[in-house]
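User: Run a structure prediction on this.
Assistant: Running it now.
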Amino acid sequence: MPVPSSLRSDIVEVNPWLRIADDPFTGEPVVHVRALRPDVALVQGSAVDARGNIHIDGDPAIDALVAKAARRVVVSVPVEEDRDPARAALSRVWVDEVVLDPQGPWPTGSGAHMVADVRAVGRWIKAGGEDLSVLAEVPS
């Protein structure tokens, strides 16, 4: 993937993931970055339809790109709903496993519709950030 920055930087000499090559469109030198291939992509969706397509309310950010690059894709969704497959953010062909979890990403958030429970996260941080039992007060 061509990157327009770092051309005059020493970073190319010390980072094996970077190399200078000609831009295929302009012929000008440009830094190329080797593509990442994650072992697993963990994606938080808003819903899964009956066909297994993943729907994300709002901006999916880079979730679909990461899912398509990963070797395996696990998606957590709070609900299975009847939705238009044409409007899915991620087709079922990219998904290896779907986990139905009514609590979603609690206590953290995901997108505009799944807001973080800042009180629960605060309790966890105040407890030192290691003891997950402080999160036992799961909302209903």
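The mean pLDDT is 87.
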